[in-house]
Amino acid sequence: MAVENSAAAESNKASHFLLADFFPESPPISERQVFRTLRAPVTVQWELTPWCNESCIHCYNFWRDAEEKEQPLLFPGIKETFEISSSEIVSNHVFQVTVTGGEPLAVFKQAYPYLKRLSNNGISLSLNSNLTMLTRERALLLKELGVRSILTSLMSGSAELNDELANRPGTHKDVSKGIKIALEEGLWVGVNMVVTRKNLPEIYSTADYVRSLGVTAFSATKASTPINSTDFSDYALSGEEFGFMLNELLRVREELSLNVDSLEFYPMCFFDTQETRDLFGNRICNAGKTACTIGFNGQVRPCSHAVQTYGSVKKGEGGLKQAWDNLQPWRTDALIPAECGDCSLKNMCRGGCRTEAYALSGSLKAPDPYCNFVHPPLPRSSKIEDSVISVDGAFSFHPAIKAREEDFGGILFVTPVRW
């Protein structure tokens, strides 16, 4: 699996988690709307396949039982699912799609016509892939689709350790080759390192290695506990180790001049320094608010980590619109932990990652295990000022801008972080 947040469990067990399992009764009167309900997601992660040629220790694939691991590459009904998923994305005016898996390049030939449909309808595409299956021909086809950015994964600059964690000999060499091909063909590549206790000391050396390949953007992201894991305690970072990871990223930025990031949403009360708070603590969970995941089987989930399904894009099962409406609890305060009741940032932070909390407690309403209730969260060191447009001035729209009507007005979209 390429990127830790690229796919989540799509097993038969996962498909049985429905909205009613978590909200069997009408929501309490005290439930309060926190985020506006958009007519459809702004962005979608589309999982083309559950199959992957790797079995990374941090990924749900590793923790599957033997029967689940034997799923065929081209599962029954794959083209029909591609057809309805792409049609639903287009008809609901989604702006951007991240193509992921499993390993999406494994079914690239079969998916290409449907990805082309998205591109032809003005939908921006990006790719999450381990790049072990990238060829120059595929790189050119990706450019033809309008894909300009790829997020890939490397767990260590050391081939021995990386291949051990990926459970496939030759992974390090194949990923490195894929990165080089992508860069040579003019595709932007960011490398994410999923960090566990096994590779925690390797952050700096891994960043230095990817820089030697020509990569300019490096992220290190704490491994989330796979929901189907039996025991992840040997791999999960402690709070102290998590802090070390963030400080190593600061060192990478300072000494290697790489753009650094951490790609998950962390509870705001975890950060104990202003520098780490400002750089890594400003993400807001977009699951069910501006984004969702369409699984390989057509089921709609809040995000790629989640196993809870809220509908399906398939015919007769409600479609993307109905599933999006069913995600309403993720837009209210229904899932904010009681422990966060007095926090001034609770509506932004929401008690940290809901799926991380669920993996360890069995409840979507539990606090993220990395919450630190000893001290209040640090505020941003600077606030974003509101822009004011003079009615007397002349201005023009960005040439790539897209628009969508909403009940409250509309959305203007340039990129997933500029809309």
From TrEMBL:
Coiled-coil intervals: none
Domain Radical SAM core positions: 38-259
Gene3D superfamilies (alphabetical): Aldolase class I
Gene Ontology MF terms in the entry: 4 iron, 4 sulfur cluster binding; catalytic activity; metal ion binding
UniProt xrefs under InterPro entries: 4Fe4S-binding_SPASM_dom, Aldolase_TIM, Elp3/MiaA/NifB-like_rSAM, PqqE-like, Radical_SAM_PqqE_MftC-like, rSAM, rSAM_sf
Cofactor: [4Fe-4S] cluster
One protein family per Pfam: Radical_SAM
Annotated PROSITE patterns: RADICAL_SAM (PS51918)
Name of this chain's protein: Radical SAM core domain-containing protein
